[in-house]
Amino acid sequence: MIRLENVSFTYADDEFPAVDNVTLTIDEGSFVVLIGHNGSGKSTLAKLLNALLIPTEGDVWVEGMNTKEEEYTWEIRKNVGMVFQNPDNQLVATVVEEEVAFGPENLGVAPAEIEMRITEALEQVGMSAFRKRPPHMLSGGQKQRIAIAGVLAMQPKMIVLDESTAMLDPQGRKEVIETIEGLTEKGMTILLITHFMEEATFADRVLVMDNGKLVMDAPPVEIFSRVEELRDYQMEIPQVIELAHELRKHGIAISDDILEREELVSELCPLL
Fold first, then answer.
1. Which range of residues forms the domain containing residue 127?
2. Is the dihedral of CA 218, 222, 224, 227 positive or negative?
3. Closest by alpha carbon to 192, among 213, 206, 210, 178?
4. Residue 104 domain-assigned?
5. Distance from C-alpha of 126 to C-alpha of 145, rounded to nearest angstrom
6. Domain containing 52 — which CATH number?
7. pTM of the prediction?
8. pLDDT by residue (tens digit) across 161-199?
């Protein structure tokens, strides 16, 4: 669905590129997580995927459409929806159902079709009961789920979530991650950009950026088996994975594919 070839992007007046010679493909229906330290180029890469930014060098294709060709811009943005960090900055209406209707209305969708899309999108994010509520009365996690519903109502093929859990408390993050997992089970293509490393354990594939470059690209089990390399890239290792790594270093027979607490408990109990 997404193809980048030798893509670089440099902001005006910057000496070094924010994205530096990245080549990448993302298949339809996949759940990809992008991680990296602050300033590594994650958000810039995200904005290149739906033509909010145009590459300084190289090419980005979305469903075969080159983002450099202006006649495709509208169609590209219909295919790739964006959800950003602060839910309050994305909400424009005073009632949840009006918020979800905002995107389809701007696409010129017929009222009867909009009504169906509102119902379906709210069901997908588990927010049907809040349809008549004012968004400002919701929790952070609920607001972010409404923002996702607003994107879903435009029926994109892919959603890019740029640090969408960063400003949420643990319960809010849990709600959003569960929503994302539900969407992936239904075949939605997801790119989640996050600095919460434990969120990457749920993905099909993890990308790691460092100083604008794509430095790692593999399934979570492989990525998190390279603990020392991740540390070199200033990444914070999830506690469970770090504990398993330290136990292995001390000669305790723990498998290399531990990603979650329950898995570590299952391995440790027989040893104890």
1. 2-219
2. negative
3. 206
4. yes
5. 8
6. 3.40.50.300
7. 0.89
8. 998 888 888 888 888 888 899 999 889 999 999 988 888
